[in-house]
Amino acid sequence: MANFAERLDLALTKRGFTGAQVASALTEAGIPITRAYVSQLRTGKQTNPTLQVLRALASCLQVSVGWLVGDEHYESGAVEDLQLRAASIGLSASGLSEGSLSVLRGVVELARRAEDLSGEPEPAPEIPDAATPLNGSQRRALGKRLYGLRAGAQLSVEQVEVALGKGAAAIPAIEEGRIAPAPITVERLLGLYGVAAPPIREYVLSLARGERETAWYDAQSVPVWLSAAYALEQRATVIRTYHTQFVPPMLQTEDYARAALTVTGPATLGQSSVEEALALVMARQEALAAASGTVLWAVIDEAVLLRSIVGPHVQLRQLDLLIDHAKRPNVSLHVVPLDDPAYVPRTGPFTLWRFAEAFEPDVACAHGIESDELITDAAEVETYHQAFTKLSVTTTTREETYEVLEFHRERLSRSIGK
Q: What are the residue boundaries of the HTH cro/C1-type domain, all occurrences included (predicted)?
């Protein structure tokens, strides 16, 4: 398998870019790097670029991050565990002295000989073709997103064209979906519009690179921060979520979801009516149900089961659905007891997403009053992980969860009978 430096060199050569041109393009896109740094990456003297730099390089060179880091199977989505672990070992060697690297190479060679791999020739990497033009749906979705971001930044078309350089991009044609801008141009526009959050940038760029077809959350009526969150959720292999006020949206009945949105207000999902917001919740549930292999680990406060936001019959159906969900093999549902809880974090509801790709770190999402905050800082994400871990070892077990749900179901049933 060719290493990162070899693939970067191949991509630069085949695409006809110099290191200076790439450095200039990324710097203009809001990711400042130098020509010398690109040269060091190209020659293998630097081996630990950040994920943001990797994505920007991939965007500029019109390849995937997976291809760039040497994961042959990432292109088709069939991620091989052995290859991912091998890639992670290579990345973890960054910063070692030459002596340590020599020892490591010797160990790897011994292991290859032991497994009779030393004689296998390494195939030369083949650079994928440049991205095909976006289809009409992708162009329109991308154009609407860029229009909304420009409007949010309160910039006129003329101001954007001056900032980019006259003739650099036909902004009206892009926003109307008539032409597709190059991914590196989108990088520059995002920087100009003040879009700094990596998940939001990556959400928009995934459209620009034509990496996926448009989805229900690409609608212009869905705020870009929420679309980015939904896109992350659909790619996650493990979802950990903690809720203190309501049943998690992924586990709500339609009637309960309508009541929850009525109480909190549809604006929390950027919608003008409860029914519009409800459609997003239902679409989110449908997408999660269709995702194969996704594990949902949900922790709720026991107060959620007592809070009455709707009639008792709807509450009862919600409890029945929770009991059904708790029996599913890919759902782990737990309750923080009201009486003498062992641990309660000083925070509101939050969610953690974990992904299959070895190079993609976990993302946390703090659910706020008016919008959600997507958190990528490793130290902050780890803080949320620690809180969830403490919750997980102090809440009900799966068996105890059934008992708690049945207890509240029986309590509510008796209340209705009276």
A: 33-68
Residue at 308: amino acid letter? S
Q: What would the two tokens of residue 152 be? A: 């949010």
pLDDT in tens, 84-125: 445 445 545 555 666 666 666 666 676 666 666 655 555 656
Distance CA 207, CA 143 (A): 10
Per DSSP, the three-state class of 139 is: helix
pTM for this one? 0.75
Residue 334 Ramachandran class (φ > 0 left, ψ -120 to 50 alpha, else beta): beta
> What is the structure's pLDDT at 175?
95
DSSP state of 72: T
Per-residue pLDDT reduced to its tens digit, 300-346? 999 999 999 999 999 999 999 999 999 999 999 999 999 999 999 99
User: Amino acid letter at 414?
Assistant: R
- C-alpha–C-alpha distance, residues 349 and 303, integer Å: 13
Domain ranges in the chain?
4-114, 136-214, 224-417
Q: Is the C-alpha dihedral spanning 37, 43, 48, 51 positive or negative? A: positive
In CATH terms, the superfamily for domain 4-114 is lambda repressor-like DNA-binding domains (1.10.260.40)
